[in-house]
Amino acid sequence: MSGLSNEAATSGYAKELVPESEQGTGWKIFFIVAGSLCGLPVFILSAHIFSSLGFVQGMAAVAVGGVISGLLGAMTAFTGSKSRMGLALLADQAFGPWGASLVKLVIAISLIGWFGVNIGVLGVTAASALTQMTGYNIAALTVGLPVCLLIAGITLYGASGLERLGNILVPATLLVLIASLVLVAPQLGEVWSKQGNGAISFGGAVSAVVGAYVVGIVIQPDYGRFVRRPAFAAMGAGVALGIAYPVIMTMSSVASLASGTPEFISAMILLGFGLPALLVLLLGAWIDSSACLYSASLSLANQFPRFRFITIIAAITVVGVVLVVVGADKAFIPFLIALSVSLPPLATILVLSALLPQPSHPHAVHRAIPVVCWALATIFGLMTNYGYWSFSTLPTFDAVLISAVIFIMLRVAVSFAPLTSAVSDGSVE
Q: Which of 207, 284, 177 has its CA nearest to residue 52?
């Protein structure tokens, strides 16, 4: 490997196309995505949705959310594989220099925020679990801060390190989930008939499901670019999000509903299976947070090439520690809802921009179209969320649909504008 190639690999190919020699199969993206779904935020959200809607409606909500997530994830992974570009390069192509800077900054902030929320939630829950299991009072920071260092370590190995961690985590999580069903088997009939408390609406639940992994959906090009065949990249992300995601949420809800505990880990401790569940919790937080840290670092490395990749990783880790200390875990659900209406339109625009034919002579108006679409779609999504307007009653779906329709209409309209001008001044006969 030449010096230039080695430098590009060390920086995660933040500014270059991934070489074909570095590409692999769709299993890579499946294990990264599925592993990221085995963390505590998914378990907490699952318990919240099923206790709010009841078991049957809860299953429907996570299934719809999974289908939307799977379709979006498949498209963004396909785009990354086909173009061999990460999110930052795709943003440069779609939004132009100024718009791309805004996109990369928003994505980096979202990822850093999710990193802090994830570690904060992990620290509080793991410390509480260890206190219950040992009888000693353990502070949340004694768990959260060391985990930050482990996360930074695996991030240095990039997509390969995340895939290896996923290879261990996915089977381990499946075994623990199966064990939870066996332990509460006598109460399955009672769980099935559980009614919800109405704390969250069906549409809100679907949006929260999408929002819980929407940052991951947007950054799928960062992992899809390492898959040789675009169809396999789409399949890996689509199966992980469309099938594994709702299955994990449904299975993890059963133990908490049967035991009356607030989430899966607490239920497993009550059932005497706390240590294996806690191990899964730690590994899930590890891969999910490492994926956030990796893509946030790629985004910032693309914007600030003067800084080394390892320096950016270290800086974001420090910011994450600060967020943990100030209690970022308290913003969990509001953070998900905000992401669920602002980032899916961005993913839609990036995909459409990459897959549709590019203008032969792009100008400032072409560059403005993605920004305008993103802003309008986010506004419409928020209006749906707060009940001011609705097409489907699902904020995320409305935001995606609006972004796609407006983008295509404006792209077509602007594409004909130069021809119209040329005809009017007589330059085209």
A: 207
CATH of the domain at 110: 1.10.4160.10
Taking each continuous run of H as one helix and of E as one strand, the counts in the chain are: 18, 0
The pTM assigned to this predicted structure is 0.75
Residue 427: its pLDDT value, please?
44
Residue 370, domain member (yes or no): no
Domain count along the chain: 1
Amino acid at residue number 301: A
Q: What gap in Å lies between CA 351 and CA 334, rounded to an integer?
A: 27
The pLDDT tens digits of the residues spanning 171-223 come to: 888 888 898 899 888 888 888 888 888 888 888 888 888 877 877 888 888 88
Compute the distance between CA of residue 173 and CA of residue 178 in angstroms, rounded to an integer: 9
Q: Enumerate the β-bridge partners of residue 227.
A: 24
Half-sphere exposure of 154 (CA within 13 A, CB side): 24
Range 246-278 burial, b when 16+ CB lie within 10 A, else e: bbbbbbbbbbbbbbebebbbbbbbbbebbeebb
Spatial separation of the C-alpha atoms in residues 227 and 231, rounded to whole Å? 9
Q: Tell me, what's the pLDDT at 238?
A: 94
Half-sphere exposure of 72 (CA within 13 A, CB side): 32
Largest CA distance in the chain: 86
Most confident of 130-134, 321-325, 348-352: 348-352
Task: Identify the domain containing residue 67 by its residue range.
Answer: 16-340
369 is a domain residue: no
- C-alpha separations of 321 from 139, 178, 224, 275 in Å: 15, 34, 29, 25
Residue 153 CA, chain-centre distance (Å), reads: 21
Kindly state whether residue 364 falls inside one of the protein's structural domains.
no
